[in-house]
Amino acid sequence: MLKGCKLGFIGGGNMAEAIIKGLLAGGVTAAELVVAEPMAERREFLRNTYGIDARADNGEVAAQADALVIAVKPQIFRGMASALGAARFDGKLLISIMAGISIGDIEEACGGACRVIRVMPNTPALVLEGASALCRGAKATDDDLFFARGIFDLVGTTCVVDEKLMDAVTGVSGSGPAYVFMFIEALSDAGVKNGLPRDVATRLAAQTVLGSAKLLLETGDHPAVLKEKVTSPGGTTIAGLASLERDSFRGTVMAAVDAAAARSAELGKKPNSN
Fold it and tell me: Rounded to an integer, what distance in angstroms lies between the CA atom of residue 37 and that of residue 48?
């Protein structure tokens, strides 16, 4: 897929690992990938697990790569870009997976002579079931977008949105797995409270979430339609739903997304937030 293009990663954390795993599963060779990671233990893990070239120096990777995935924390991005210098980014395609940092800020920090695709992936990419939204900068081409989308299609599903919607994407799918994990934990806790062994309660809760999501995606039905099919008059499900409504379940979830989206917007402001 890379067609002779060397793809570099600045940052070798969980999301970078997920993308690397997907690329290798999709037929990209380890020789086409290189990653810069400051932690020696993490570099060793990436080398041993995936057979890729992992280095400590960002500059070496930036110089060697034709395209770069920027996978550092947004709080350290501007310092990293300044330390590397704008010349390192000239003419390169930069694929950013940083929350909150706008395409304009990336172009400014990297000298303006780069093409930028901004992506918000999520951690289920680690099991090749991620959800990623992409937007492109004015200097990025159709081929750049096709290239970047091809990468993230290997670790899940993708969609293209306007950049103004990326904070909302962050609140929904970027942070969303944590909400789902909390829901599964709570569902499991409730099962234990009602007498189920912990392993059974957790397995039932997780499979219920997985199966429900798959049912929704494969049928294309509105969530309300599928909910109605589970809800019998005077039955157990309507009793549970009534309790969720009394406790403002939907409002609580919406408020969580609002908070995450607001924090994403804060991360993009200058100076960087902590």
Answer: 14
In 3D, which of 92, 111, 112, 101 has the Cα closest to residue 135?
Answer: 101
Sign of the Cα pseudo-torsion (253, 258, 264, 270, in order): negative
Q: Which of 99, 95, 92, 139 is nearest to 118 (CA)?
A: 95
Known binding-site residue numbers for NADP(+):
10-15, 71-74
Task: Return binding residues.
Answer: 10-15, 58, 71-74
Q: What is the pTM of this model?
A: 0.87
Q: How confident is the model at residue 156 (pLDDT cuts 50, 70, 90)?
A: very high
Distance, CA of 236 to CA of 260 (rounded, Å):
33
Annotated binding-site ranges for NADPH: 58
Q: Which domains does the chain have, with CATH numbers?
A: 7-168 (3.40.50.720), 176-266 (1.10.3730.10)
Per residue in 211-238, pLDDT tens? Answer: 999 999 999 999 999 999 999 999 999 9
